[in-house]
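Lecture 7, part B: from sequences to assemblies.

Below are the input chains for today's worked example.
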Amino acid sequence: MKSMPIVLPTLLLLVLKASGLSAFGQFDPGADGLASHWSRLPVEVIVDGGTLFGGNEGLRMVQEAAEIWNGVTGVPRLFSVSEQADSIDYRLDNMDVWNVLDRRVRVVFDEGGEVLLNSGIDPDSRVLGIADTIADSTGAALQGVVIINGHPTVSDFPDTVAVVVHELGHILGLTHTPIGFGGLEPVSRANRPTMYPFTESRNMDTLEADDIAGVRSIYGQGR
Amino acid sequence: MKKHLLRRTLFFLLLPAAVSAASYQWLTTEDLVYQSKGIVLATCVSADYTEEDGTVFGRVGTYGFHVEEVIKGTPPITDDLLSIRLVGIHARNVPFHPGEGVLLFLGSTNRDGFATLYGAEHGVLHIEEAGPFSRHPGRVIQRLIKERITGQGAFHRKGKMPLDEFLDAVRARIHGGKEGTR
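Predicted structure of the full complex, as structure tokens:
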């Protein structure tokens, strides 16, 4: 009886796995405050023109992350990343320039973590990135923002691309997956879905079956 | 008062997997104790949430807390009151309610003088009264506590934990000379 809290959820996940179902989730704007989908694809992504990652390195990382999602078959092309980074360095003191409702996504490289700190979150506390969206009454996104924490204690995290991939998953409407979380480990660490909330190491910048099933459920044909 | 405190237990209700859209490096409870800049035991006395212009950063939640005890650090407290302002999705998804008891792990103070949360949702532990039928107070909560708490002694407890016992363990670590070494 003591082991029931572990046994029951494990059995549930085994049943899900055996039946071919997945455990991904989609945001409910009313409950979660985040958009559940984009009504028009591909979603246009504009990258911070700041120098956090040096020159066009930030742009390259976002393009790489977007192409990972664009590689999903059975859905329209999901992201279109502008060829050049914005001419503006997105900062706390010019937020009115980039915090706008224009059905685009801005990727902000938050030098020093100043935007995070102003948001009430200490950037020196292992938060790697945050995704945020605004939805209309149907749940469709009106705005998307990805904040990549540039505080010195985390800006050398070895796989920023993985963080961007994860945050873009949220932008698309995916919640964190319960697979690999909560003491239930039906998958190896290397095969954890990208939408697993804790980014611990490299090898998180690939999509797993749960991530792919999730995005297909939102944007696939016949949904 | 002590009897009152002994009946209180900690619940770890807010987890990133459930409420947020972010990626984190894992923080254990010991990480929170050693690495946070401040720890306070407090009661929420005000909660004001607004959506100013409909944008992501137009969502602002401002919360006031009456501080019962400062356990670590020198957080920005005036007349026993601490203020936290959350902007964006965390303003929605880290809900504080007046009358609610919390243990807050704090980060740096921002330029507007507000305290910040250490580790976002990680840094908020809710305190509730143990109810009369609390022998099995929720298996999910028990399981989450087991995952969150690592180390030895009181921090290795699997079920819900009495507040006094948890605070004793926190104080022991803070005064044990390890602070700032991890």
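Note for the exam: Chain A has seven helices and five strands. Keep this in mind when comparing with the next example.
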